[in-house]
Task: structure prediction
Amino acid sequence: MKPIFRACAALLLLLALCVPSFALAATEPNTKTIEETTTYEGETIRVIIDRWCYAFNNTELRFFVANVFTQRPDQLMTAFAGEEYSMSTAEATSEIAARHDAVLAINGDYYNYKDNYGLVIRNGVLYRDKPSTRDQLLVMQDGTFVALPAGTYEEGTGQSYIDQGVVQSFSFGPLLVNDGEAVELPEKYIIYTGDTVREPRTAIGQVDANHYVFLVADGRRDGWSDKGMTLQEMQKVFVEQGCQVAYNLDGGGSATMVLNGERVNKTSGSRERNVSDIIYFTK
Result:
């Protein structure tokens, strides 16, 4: 075979191998099944975690949807690795959660990863007030989620948000749902947003006062959850759950959910990745 034909054949083979994975990401699953439901009932909180399996022609996706019902808005809390705002400290989600006796915990937005941008308010304290081109999320004192789309936050105004009742803020994104509808995702962001991109994911949403939804998708684990979840699939899940606002957090190896000290999901690595912060519910 002549070199030019040999090269063309190799290129066609490469394209053939790549097409299924890209086509898979853009197609609907063949089946959607709740495989297992775990519940926790306390005096002031109720947690229902459904383990979903989306089966495609050649692979599967498994993810966890936690519906959380609380009696008090201050049950939604955040915590830092090492119990301090730091640009270098990191711990496993389960370790931070155990120290705070968390009922349910997920990894946060990894505020100290790679950059020093955005608004960081945690448990009513202002830690960072830097410019940002990202979507951001605010949690008000009454527990309400408020979206700050890119371009609507101005550096130096952090204290004014606290004065208005903001107790938590997150700066990762993108924003997934606002006013009950999936938003148009930006073409360029700190992570890839195309509908062919599957990754382990963590995201949060709110249905109404004191009803929250946590979502953690597994990925990069052959035979369990091979590739992960697209942002578009997460948008659909949050809309189906009735969320008015939903927001993407740090994912990949960080994606972790912990219930009463036990890890719920299967992280993409052999152990939990250390992170800078968590979001959790108290008893």
Observations:
- Residues 3-26 form the longest helix (24 residues).
- Helices lie at 3-26, 93-99, 158-163, 231-240.
- Residues 1-24 have pLDDT under 50 and may be disordered.
